[in-house]
Amino acid sequence: MKYTYFYDKFNERDGHMKFLETIGAYLLFLRRIFARPERRRVFLREMTNELEKLGLNSIVLVMIISFFIGAVLTLQTAYNMSNPLLPRYLIGYLTRETLLLEFSSTIVSLILAGKIGSNIASEIGTMRITEQIDALEAMGVNSVSYLVGPKIAAALVINPVLYVFSVFIGIIGGFLAGLGAGSVNYDDYLNGLHFEFTPYYVTYSIVKTLFFAFIFTSIPAFYGYTTRGGALEVGRASTRAVVDSSIAILVVNLVLTKILL
Amino acid sequence: MIEIKGVTKYFDAKKVLHEVDATFEQGKVNLIIGKSGSGKTVLLKTLIGLLPADAGTIAFDGREITGDNARNMKEIRKEMGVVFQGGALFDSLPVLENVMFPLDLFSRADEAWKRERALACLHRVDLDNVSHLHPAELSGGMKKRVAIARAIVLQPRYLFCDEPNSGLDPLTAIVIDNLLSSITREYGMTTVINTHDMNSVFETGENIIFIHDGRKEWEGDREAIFHAASPALNEFLFTSKFNRTIKEHLS
Q1: How confident is the model over B126-170, as pLDDT tens digits?
Q2: What is the CB neighbour count within 10 angstroms for residue A101?
């Protein structure tokens, strides 16, 4: 409970708090996440629930978005390649590179920051204002580790899987759209997919998805956990969680790109 | 028995508890009463370790939890049951799993025993057919009873309740009062209840502490309270015409 001071301070100023103080409170919060779980069995049970809640429930959304973005990418690339000197296989190549490097890792994570982030912030925020977190603490449970740890672990497992799904579905979307619109034929598209393939890009993107998964679970959890007041504050925490985790994803994306590429 | 001496609490510069001394006796229902904002919830949260005391000592059967002895709290928490104002049941879990929750975390017994124990606690609070329901499907009184079942599932030595009757009709409130009294005797617990429900005071108050503006203003039992000299306590208790009439009648 020695961190209460920071949490209280954070809420008192409500938006006017200094940036560094927020970071400090967030880091203290993270320290509690990494405490040893009370029971490994309980942790694994919660993590399995979170895998379903955060991951499986997002697969359909990721598939739909990836399919249509893949399709649009192919059509736009084809539209901008009217020059007959440019080989047609570049359409498949550019679709693959865009999905592999940016869309399926960063943009999908941004979408998940909205879907999963608001869900986490409102769930934990509601638990805070209805004293469920106090009940956990009163039982001697490290509430941060119990509530947030399984969510982060589940997101770290599921986000790379969603990334792989997204790349494949995006490529299929691009292929069907390109073929349907007559912009590219089967052989050109397939050649483009194979053209100068760099396996390291997959590694780079998977590393990014791990960082992003940590961001879009831990930041909303922090905002939810530090909620004080009522339903209005839960709504505010949810909004702030989505905005801040999205910004954090973009900043970390820039830093990781500079470091890893 | 829980003894507190000179317990003081600040929120920033504001002093909300002023050197409170009190003894909460084992096997008795100990009530903390006072107006809204008087500091009774802060005192209760300080007792259960959710808020650290800024000064003073708190000892559970001689085991201090304040200052350098804060590590004792970890063990004491396992001997403690808490019933929060709204029940604080976990929304995502059905009733049975809510009651089994402390067992899952702290008991190494097998699943069948835990289930049996949780069902026995639900039976003890007269809730035999709700184990499959979720908290959202329960009435206010049922939620409180499930919260009591969860609080006693580990057979605690100390039971804390924050306004267990708030939002309940008078009949259900009496059911909860009687339940808490009988469980206290049955388990030989030290029970501390935070309330401003006058029926509870007159029904169950074996040891009553009146908090006024963060200070302990009065201490006694439900018989003595009718003859208390404290103006603040008299104003608090006998503002309603009904309570004044009772007092005049008894006098």
Answers
A1: 888 899 999 999 998 899 999 999 999 999 999 999 998 888 888
A2: 18
Mutating which of A2, A10, A122, A132 best tests the B interface, going by the most B Cβ atoms within 10 A? A132
Tell me the residues of chain A between 127 and 186 that have a Cβ less than 8 Å away from chain B.
127, 130-132, 134-135, 137-141
Strands of the B2-11 sheet, one edge to the other: B14-24, B2-11, B55-60, B63-64
Q: Helices then strands (H, E): number in chain A?
A: 11, 0
Domains and CATH numbers, chain B: 1-79+158-166+190-251 (3.40.50.300)
Handedness of CA B223, B227, B228, B233 (dihedral sign): positive
Q: Which ipTM value was assigned to this complex?
A: 0.86
Please tell me the distance from the alpha carbon of residue A154 to that of residue A151, in angstroms, as a whole number.
5
C-alpha distance from A133 to closest chain B C-alpha (Å):
8
CB A157 within 8 A of CB A49: no
Contact in structure between B135 and B143 (CB atoms under 8 Å)? yes
CB contact under 8 A, B104 and A132: no
Considering Cα of A142, then A148, then A151, then A156, what sign does the dihedral take?
Answer: negative
pLDDT in tens, B4-45: 999 999 998 899 999 999 999 999 999 999 988 889 999 999
Tell me how crowded residue B82 is: count the other CB atoms within 10 A of its CB: 27
Q: Is B86 on the interface with A (CB under 8 A)?
A: yes
CB B207 within 8 Å of CB B225: no
The encoded tokens of residue A103 equal: 């869309």
**Region of residue B53 (left: phi > 0; alpha: psi -120 to 50; beta: else):** beta
Cβ contacts of A130 on chain B, cutoff 8 Å: 86, 88, 91
Which residue type sits at B26? Answer: Q
- Quote the distance between the C-alpha of residue B234 and its chain's center: 23
B52 and B229 in contact (C-beta within 8 Å)? Answer: no
**A29 backbone dihedrals φ, ψ, rounded to 5°:** -65, -45
Fill in the DSSP letter of residue B55: E
